[in-house]
Amino acid sequence: MFDIRTLLVLIPVLPLLAAAVTGFFGPRFLRKNSHWPCIVAVASSCVLAFLVLGKVAHAEAPLIERYYTWMQTGSLDIGLTLRADGLTALMLITITFVGSWIAIFAVGYMSHEREHEAGYARFFAAVALFVFSMTLLVLGDNYLVMFAGWEGVGLCSYLLIGFWFQKPSAAAAARKAFLVTRLGDAGMMLGILLLWAGYQYAHPQTTASGINFETAFTWASSTLPDDTDTQLFFGTVALLLLCGAVGKSAQIPLYVWLPDAMEGPTPVSALIHAATMVTAGVYLVARSMPIFHAAPPAVLLTVASIGAATALLAALIALTQHDLKRVLAYSTISQIGYMFLALGCATTDGLVLLAVTAAIFHLFTHAFFKALLFLSAGSVMHAMGNVIDMRRFSGLRTVLPTTHWTFLCGAAALAGVPLLSGFWSKDEILGAALEASHHAYGNVYMVLFISGLVTAGLTAFYTFRAYFLTFWGEVKVPPEAGHHVHESPPVMTVPLMVLAVGAVGLGIVVQPFTHWFGHLLEHHWLNSSFGGTIQPAPHGFNIPLMAGSSLFALGGVGLAWLMYVRSPALPGKLAGTMQGLYQLSLNKFHVDELYYVFFVGPATLFAGICQAIDFLVDSVVDLVGQLPGLLGKLVRPIQNGLVQFYALAMILGLTVFLSALVLRMAK
Amino acid sequence: MNPTVELANVYLLALPEIVLTLSACLLFLAGTFRQNRHFWAMKSLGILGAAAFILALPFYRQPVDPLFALQAPNMVQPIVLDRLALLLKIVALIGGAVLVLFSWNEVSDDLAAEYHACLLVIIAGVGLSAMANDLIILFLALEMISIPTYVILYLQKTDLGAREAAAKYFLLSVFSTGLLLFGFSYLYGLCGTTNITALLDGLRSTDAGRLPLIALVALVMVVAGLGFKITAVPFHFYAPDVYQGTSLTSAALLAFVPKVAGFAALLRVLDFVWPGNRPPGVALGTQAPILFWILAAMTMTVGNVLALLQDNLKRILAYSSVAHAGYMLIGLATAPELAHQAAAVGGGQAVVFYLVSYGAMTVGAFAVLAYLSTPQAPIETVDDLAGVSRSHPAVALMMAIFLFSLIGMPLTAGFAGKFFLFLGALEVRPEQAVLFRCLALIAALNAAAGAWYYLRIIAAMYLRTPLRAIDKPATWPGLAAIAVCAAITVALGVYPTPLLQAAKAAVGQ
After folding, report:
1. Residue ranges, chain B, pLDDT below 50
2. pTM
3. What is the pairing mode between strands A63-73 and A76-84?
4. Could you count the other beta carbons within 10 Å of the beta carbon of residue A664?
5. What pLDDT digit, counting tens, does each position of A463-501 carry?
6. What single string gives the DSSP state of each residue in A40-90?
7. How many angstroms separate the CA atoms of A135 and A280, rounded?
8. A7-34 burial, b if ≥16 CB within 10 A, otherwise e?
9. Shortest CA distance to B119 belongs to which of B37, B53, B179, B176?
10. pLDDT digit string (tens) for A227-285?
């Protein structure tokens, strides 16, 4: 129906149009119907994304289309180029499919905003703009287009976290998110520039630009094993890119913004801060895998260590949080840590496919079950009058039956209960880590593997802790909820049910038996970007590993049941006996405070010094700035308004020119 | 070829201008019968549309090849439709349409027909001056611009200040016309022809760089005469006084139209147009770059420095138009050298690009002022704009776009235009490299100084509280004029390539 050129450009353009229409006409004309452009556009993009998947699956090579050349001077060749390969197609489907259902859910969730029409339109305009930026991010065929999308999602995240900007905490959270991710972005920008400059340096005669994916990856995958200089160069580039990834995906040390980002409306938390934007870092590392692979193995070890450490730390913090959304936020940080752990395992040619497939597969399943959990939490919030503290409600399984079931599906998938989608993808990650422990830095990878296993147990525990606290026990409803607490309307429950089906069933369909996922990534992406050097991954199941991880998962669930249903007094006692540890976890290991003392404090001091110097420089500059004004005052009298004088000045000027000319010629 | 056939062809080339002028005559006559400004504005918009249609007609079957000249000027034809003429005629028609929209509600009912008729003649004059390949035609075309301008200046406002402005403009304009004619007469005396192509061939056949002194004197006179039109220092004195005294529509007209015609004439007469494979000409010899260097430096510095002290918005924009003429003169100074080097962006090309950008942003800024003014409460000083962003957010945003473009912020036309001009000055090589780097430095300092007074306006619009309420009902033609200018300003900033290529084809190098 459409050729690929139109398809690729329509996917981001439709949401962009929707954003423009909603932004300009929403407040005045669309009013209470402001959600329609966004939903229609994102859903159409979703249909188109499936068409793209079909085209990709039938194509031999990645589909690349250049729409227009933005700048071309020497070796700087920047074009608006979009590409579609296996990775892009999967990301597009994740973004637009989950995005469509979340947008529909938001119609119900944001219903109280419909009274303030401007806010309602602003919300959907920003969501559409986000989908535009995110699809651009994954479609871009060079680092600059990708960076444009990258900054676009950052902006939308800022706008949506601060959606209720009248609340000081929301405004502060939006600022924090923006600034913390910018820290990483600065590194990423440096990495992109370094890559471009390095390519130019290594290929002086070239007209190709190092920021184009094909060019960079061909160069990276053709690096010889004994070429240590180039390897170190790629190591530097990779670490700088990792800075950006760590910021956007909320990993150690830049994870602190994500829990605060929960100030935004819950659909936003589901879409941006769980399913899509925060996984952009994973996408970046996966996309740049040839560069990471060409770098010394220590770089990938860094990726894996950051991932595993973040996963463990976030899981430990999640154990004690009282705020349902914050539990989920820490869980998101922890799960993305898993994905980084998987990516970091791609140390040899044989491991690349295994590791990257595991990471992207987990990204895919995580998008479904985490979006589902957030939306279910949103449904709870909606019914509870925006109360989200788990100490203030309980026993909701009879009050909110649908939400209860969907939350259970999501929780079970997240906990890694066997045969659900989270189980399969987590298992692949642990398998990749175990495999990596047979190669370089094997001992370290073994430690990372064990910490991943422990994290799996913790995940199951905190997820079901939240589940039991919310839905079990005696029925308790906060006064804010009003008298008639009822289940959410169908516009909210239908998306929940759709996502629940995905969270339960998708995993088993696409990978463990059919290997669709792995084949798509291998044949339609990795082979071409590595120049065919990677080896296919072995199929088959590591039964002992599966049994072990199932044991940890079910053990966590069982422990949660024991502590929060069977004997609810137990947690209190436990917290009492281990007061120190409990407080440490509850206060998030004091990382925020540590950052405050070690980074914000010195930064403030430095800013003070800078201010003093700035004042000094400013005064000098001001003095210089007075000069043109003074000059003007000198010249001003000749503009005296007398026409005779003006004519005279013209003649004088002419005379000066002519005499200068005559004198020069006479010489 | 048969001279009669040749002449008939020439008339065909000028068909849009002929239509404009004849329609203007009808408007003058019919104006006595109907006094309604909207009616006449609608009519003149239609006439401009008809002229555009006639202009486009020959290209319907044969689309223009984007890179090659339509027709190189020859030694016979008095007018010629080459790429430069085509580009400037399009610019003139679009500019004319914007000016009509802009003055939709600004002229009084009883004088509307005359006003619009004058405007049509002026637009025809611009088109003709862009096509002129003969000194006499060029002179006539320039007078076709000047004389209706005097009428417009007199028609629109009748208070003392306006009369003073009109009288000043008239006297000094006539004076500069005298200088121009004087220069033309010497050129004719030297070469025995008024055909510009033949004349330049004659000048070029003399040993390069060793032109007779009399030729140089003639060309300096021509520059002086045209310098009045482009407000080059020291021929700029009228601009602030006249702009301040007259209405906003006339000020916009004065800021835009004479500059287009003046630069078109400068490009043609001083041999800056090198279509086809003709070698880069240096009709002014080696002295030309120095002359334009000094003119450029003086013009931009005086314009910016004096604008710093102003509070009156019209005076600020007047000095700003002087300063921008200075930036454009950089292009003329660098053009010969850049042509020898075959630089990526030539000097003349940058001038044509900047001319269009300058027109969009300056006319846009005037249109915003006119849009917000009412006869009872005109917008005159920076204080009058205080807090406009709250009462008219969209218009304030457009004004901010125009001002940012005048400053030269990236992603606006002003940035792209300045970038090409300054880049040219930096690219001039061997002997004169230092000299032209100095010029680029002066230009950069000027751009920085210029930012101050533009930003002051933006700050007043966005950061200050309104001193008085501006309650002007929305009028769509005014808004349309502003929107067209803003669209051009942004489009040229984001994607300058098409116009840049058109400009390259227009001036050859």
Report:
1. 1, 66-69
2. 0.72
3. antiparallel
4. 12
5. 999 999 888 888 888 888 777 778 888 888 899 999 999
6. HHHHHHHHHHHHHHHHHHH-SS-EEEEEEEEEEETTEEEEEEEEE-HHHHH
7. 11
8. bbbbbbbbbbebbbbbbeebbeebeeeb
9. B37
10. 888 899 999 999 999 999 999 998 888 888 888 888 888 898 888 888 888 899 999 99
**pLDDT tens digit sequence for A49-79:** 999 998 888 888 888 888 888 776 666 778 8
Q: Is A14 helix (H, G, I), strand (E, B) or coil?
A: helix
AA identity, residue A92 = L
The confidence score (pLDDT) of residue B224 equals: 92
CA-to-CA distance for A161 and A158, rounded, in angstroms?
5
- Hey, are the CB atoms on A647 and B449 less than 8 Å from each other? no
Separation of alpha carbons B196 and B207, rounded Å: 19
Residue B311: inside a domain: yes
DSSP codes of every residue in B120-140: HHHHHHHHHHHHB-BHHHHHH
Q: What is the pLDDT of residues B468-507, one digit of tens each?
A: 877 777 788 999 999 999 999 999 998 888 898 888 888 8
Residue B269 domain-assigned (yes or no): no
The residues in A 42-61 lying below 8 A from B, measured between CB atoms, are none
Q: What letter represents residue B373's amino acid?
A: S
CA distances from A209 to A79, A198, A336, B495 (A): 10, 10, 32, 20
Provide DSSP, A419-460: TSHHHHHHHHHHHHHHHHTTSTTHHHHHHHHHHHHHHHHHHH
Which of B320, B290, B482 shows the shortest CA–CA distance to B401?
B482
Retrieve residue A446's tokens: 């073994």
Point out which residues pair with A69 in neighbouring strands.
A79
Question: Which residues of B make CB contacts under 8 Å with A?
Answer: 167-168, 171-172, 175-176, 179, 213, 216-217, 220-221, 224, 228, 233-235, 237-238, 240-241, 287, 291, 294, 302, 304-306, 308-309, 344, 449, 452
Greater pLDDT, A123 or A60: A123
Nearest to A632 among B237, B305, B344 (CB): B305
Give me B83's structure tokens. Answer: 């790429």
Nearest to B449 by CA among B291, B322, B304: B304
The pLDDT value given to residue A589: 75
A643 — contact with chain B (CB < 8 Å)? yes
Spatial CA neighbour of A149 closest among A315, A337, A16: A16
Domain count, chain B: 1
**What is residue B247's three-state secondary structure?**
coil
The answer to whether the CB atoms of A661 and B287 lie below 8 A apart is yes
pLDDT tens by residue, A599-614: 778 888 888 998 898 8
How far, in Å, CA of A654 to CA of B224, rounded? 7
The answer to whether residue B202 sits within a structural domain is: no
Specify the pLDDT at position B68: 46
Is B407 inside any structural domain? yes
- Residue B412's domain comprises 295-509
Instruction: Output Rg (C-alpha) for chain B, integer angstroms.
Output: 22
